[in-house]
Input
Amino acid sequence: MNLYSGYPFWLIKDGLPFDYPKLETSIKTDVVILGGGISGALAAYYLINAGIECVVVDARTIGLGSTCASTSLLQYEIDTPLCELKDLVGLDNAKRSYQLCAEAIDTIKSISNKLNYKEFKSVKSLYYAACKKDISLLKEEFAIRKESGFEVKYLDEKQLKKYFNIAAPCAILSQCGAEINAYSFTNTLHQYNINMGLKVYDRTPIKNIKHSKKNVVLQTENSNTIYANKLIYATGYETVNFIKKKIVKLHSTYSTISEQVNEKTKFWKDDVLIWNTAEPYLYMRTTNDKRILVGGRDEEFINPERRDKLIERKKILLVKDFKKVFPNIEFNPEFTWVGTFGATEDGLPFIGNYKPLPNSYFALGFGGNGITFSVIAAQIISDLITGKKNKDAQIFSFER
Output
């Protein structure tokens, strides 16, 4: 599947920072991770640190799937508001899902510090009402987040205008949030993991997979064989090809990023992450090299051709959306792209065993904040493979 089109900023900015070999022989390993994007890199990080032998295999060049197209906002909020999620999965599971996402942001910060990775930045998150009818939703959402222990502040129309110069009915300001470059972070993880003994192979498509109670056998396109005790599917939205039941609906989200401006230029207060209650929602962030990224205007994914034809029009609309929020901030778009993402019925990812495929584990971080879900998946799957109990596994299981 063609997962993105256009000019993803992170790929242009960083190019191909490292070379990874093709798999050109048959091998044996304890665990094979299918997919070398951020989900696969995090899964490998946890397994390698747990002393588990593993290999990463990707059909593409590393990071050139959904990872390089990610807008890399790190939020504890998922696409389904907490006040609505509780009705879908129960209050305890809903709260725990949000808490795990908050913990995942702290985990990424800790890993970044450990790996001396410089592109992680802690920032606050501002969630504002797109129209007056959403005031009641935000009041209910604020109350349940406050009661659940999150550090949040409710801003009415006057406060929102005063502090952030945004004309909207109200907002929730959260202390927990961050931004990153998912593409460079993935490559940084792989380099650390390789130094710890991981083997990473890219440009190695898999043409056949056989699961049995004993092991998993994978055949590559060039007729080599990978024998593994267990297989982790970290292939993102392409995993729909391996799952019999429909678990996700594919969408396309459009992003545009501005030209770089003077280092002294101020955008908005504290460079907070900004998103709203619209469907699809508008989202925006800044970058460490003084750009503004704006995204949204999602469309149901039909096919790559139809998706790609809309890029230029979506760029124009996203710039207009931004100017409605910040009419006095200059925004000259430089790069625009579109990426595919998936939405589940409850907004939660699917993580763990999939019974129809013995010895399989899935790390499917669907949703607008798939990076935090990828951390949760890596932690849960590492525990399952090493025989540890994980009390959170059932929240994201295929049997939920």
User: Anything to note?
Assistant: The mean pLDDT is 94. The CA atoms of residues 267 and 329 lie 7 Å apart. The two ends are 28 Å apart (CA to CA).
